[in-house]
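Bump. Still looking for Nickel/cobalt transporter regulator structure tokens.
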Amino acid sequence: MKTTIVMFAIVLLFGTVGVFAKPPNGELPRGLQKKVAEGQQLPPGWQKKLMVGYRLEPNIYAHGRVIVPVDDRGHIIVMVEDRRLRLVQATLEIIEILN
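Sorry for the wait, here they are.
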């Protein structure tokens, strides 16, 4: 009886792991993709992650617009909604928040 309960608990534990996984390839979840496709803004929480030294998430970068192309140092300036960011293009590390 104890073995059956333990096995059942293990199956439940590992059976729910996929539910908490991030979408593949840095994509936005389906609901957010739909909002962005309809022209709505990204959720307000992404702006809290903007700090010098941190990396911009690839899905946020994908929704941005390049303002200044790559310079000789490998830096790029991107506009994401109302924010201008100077990034290292190769790593998407935030070097400077311009506004």
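The CA atoms of residues 41 and 85 lie 17 Å apart.

Edit: fixed formatting.
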